[in-house]
Amino acid sequence: MTAGGDGFAAVAGGPAPHIPVLGRRAVEQLNVHDGGIYIDGTFGAGGYTRLILETPGAQVIGIDRDPRAVAMSADLVQAAAGRLTMIEDQFSNLDAVAQSCGHDAVDGIVLDVGVSSMQLDNAERGFSFRLDGPLDMRMGNDGPSAADIVAHADERDLANIIYQFGEERHSRGVARAIVKARGEKPIETTRALADIVGRVVRSKPNEIHPATRTFQALRIFVNDELGELVTALEAAERILKPGGRLVVVSFHSLEDRIVKTFFAGRAETRGGSRHAPQVERAAPSFTVLTKRPEVADDAEVAGNPRARSAKLRAAERTAAPAHDSNAADLLPHLPSLSDIMKGH
Q1: Strand segments (E) across 84-202
Q2: Residue range 172-185: average pLDDT?
Q3: CA angle at 215 for the pair 213 and 220, rounded to the nearest 5°
Q4: pLDDT tens track for 215-251
Q5: What range defines the domain where residue 194 resides?
């Protein structure tokens, strides 16, 4: 993708290395304007940021927990000439990051939830079963890796993680096979794990790889992706100005369900029924802009297969106070990373 328009194109430094899924629609929903402050909470290769910076005078705070992504943004930061600030952090801290940059409120936030193509295409990161590499999967440099979880989680916890986060029907069989295999030798590479899963989960031609759901589940668990998403949504609610926009692009049903439920709860206006006592509700803090999620058209899917499963939801902040946290209601009940690693 090459930056266009009259704003950032002249200083964009050539083509972007990444095509942001539903990029144009996301930026349209952000309602970007001159002088606005925007957060790209999942910077990656900077695709959304480049589109935002096409509007003259718009400023972006880019956040990524991956130090490699931050390091690779140096040329873009220089080209933006003071309109892009890059921060290495988790997007769940986006309100604190904005405040540290001198902004008590922002005009828009975009989140592209999940693993980036840069990470998938790097064998050393251990995200993909297509490329043999260390079984890592960490988006940052700290905390337990996928290999640690595979080595230390008990069979029941493994099965629950794979079922809840991967929606894998054969989760018990996969967990049983992992525990048996690790008793013989450590499972340290992506290929070793994929082979174990492939002996339990069978797939037909043209179906997804048998290990897809197990790898997805471990990646989500290792990076606490769903917990991060809920915390980020609540942080966005605190830092957005009235009229500010929150746009989220998600890639599987677990993420999309959380975003949909969060927006619906924050936009809720119903009281009690005539058969039940009146329920006192906080004033709506968001107005939902997408009654149904927006999806990529055939042309975008043809050019970028990753867009096939993408769903975009957007909402606009009202002037009402932020609601109390309801994270526990949005997340599945599973052991934490520290629980799994206790004693190891």
Answers
A1: 84-88, 106-112
A2: 98
A3: 95
A4: 999 999 999 999 999 999 999 999 999 999 999 999 9
A5: 141-222
